[in-house]
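User: For a benchmark we're assembling, each entry needs the component sequences followed by a predicted structure for the full assembly. Here are entry 17's components. Please fill in the structure.
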Amino acid sequence: MRENGGPVVTDFNYTPSHQKQFLQPAVGTTVSSHQDLKQIVEMTLGSEGVLNQAVKLPRGEDENEWCAVHCVDFYNQINMLYGTITEFCSPQSCPRMIATNEYEYLWCFQKGQVPVAVSAPKYVECLMRWCQDQFDDESIFPAKLSGQFPPKFISKYVVQMLRRLFRVYAHIYCHHFNEILELNLQTVLNTSFRHFCLFSQEFELLRPADFGPLLELVMELRDR
Amino acid sequence: DIDITSSPKKLPAGFHEKAKSHKTQRVVSVCQMYFLDYYCDMFDYVISRRQRTKRVLEYLSQQRAQKSLGNERLNEEWTGYLQKEHEVLRKRRLKPKNKDFE
Ligand SMILES: [Zn+2]
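Assistant: Structure for entry 17:
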């Protein structure tokens, strides 16, 4: 797994079914330049209420299913975003999973054990694996059409997952934003994070305390 | 014990070399394409779902006005429609598995 002595890179991409099949090129609708991306993402950021509208529960839909789909979507987005900075987020550069010097996130390797300090890449690796295990657990994220969500699915599972996924945004914003700027990914990061906040807000999933180091940014994005 | 020489406020040593590397360029463009694709698809889904729902509701209120369908039947049609939408949404969440290709 170790490439040229660099940081351990694990491909956690959880392929969503809505990613276009490679056999359907959809000529004319495929947007392939950075300019197009910029326009679309800026459109989502700039125009009032586009994302606010998109997070609303569709009429008659089960709230559990809507939240489950979003968990997978945000997981994928964070995986993609963090993937761009893995070269810059190593156990040497980030020996602890922190967001500013005020917040440190610990990982608990076994139930009942004391959570321990780990490096940022280790934390993200553990977190992504933990999410995958949850997604693969049919009793939590049912795949069969007949499968039911467990009782209190949202308060027990969705909230916990979003709380943890948030920490990756926090680490990126607080410790790798300059790299993100240099790579010209700030619009993508802001869109993703704003979407994440609007969704959490719509269903009252996270408390202000969960946003810890990014509380000011959350307020700013909300007021846009 | 945090090493402030590699603190958030500045770029890490060797940044530009790494940023120019083939690997970084590739993950950055994969990331941008992913988001583009995601948001196009997501808006497309949200908008077309709303349109479908609107059509079904229009159809149902039409039937109701003409009294061509009883209340029970109207409810069944609506529930059946929601079930179908629910199945579509669940499928969006799942990664394609080989066993799905029967
Ligand atoms: Zn880092």
